[in-house]
Amino acid sequence: MSNYASSTSSPNDRLTQESRRNLYTLTFPFPFNIPSTPESAGVRIVKNLQRFGLYYSTFIWTVLFIALVPQRKVSVIFLVAMTEVVFLYLLLLRALPDSQILHRIIDKRFVLFLVFVVTCIELILTKAAAHLFIVLGATVPIVVLHAVLMSLTEEVVSTSLFMTIL
Description:
77% of the residues lie in helices and 0% in strands. By secondary structure, the chain is mainly α. α3 (38-68) packs antiparallel against α7 (129-149) and α4 (73-95) runs antiparallel to α6.
């Protein structure tokens, strides 16, 4: 004889089975998606440039450094020297947090833009302009594409190992 009563389950048993399934469900948050409107893409670009600006500039600097190493030794020296100037300026900002001149009058973005312009002029004068423009032409679209597609929600930020390292 079969026991049919044991094969049928009550609503409470189904709820506990469902909660067990949810307990063991592993979800992977995916931080990339296509923005719905051009305005949301613009907002994402601005937010991601603020959030990942250091990483974007390090990526472009690394590719430029690798492109210059084989042929343009003098340009590499200028690039490293300007990197040290930026590093010392940022250390000065960190060392003097109460300085009104460094934080209020002289904007950090203006100084970093000025260093970028001086670095570009140095690379052009050392005949590395082709390397500079090729690297910028290859890396800036990658950076913009990442900035458009990367959308970090609070759920992704809280569960992402990448963001806990940052």
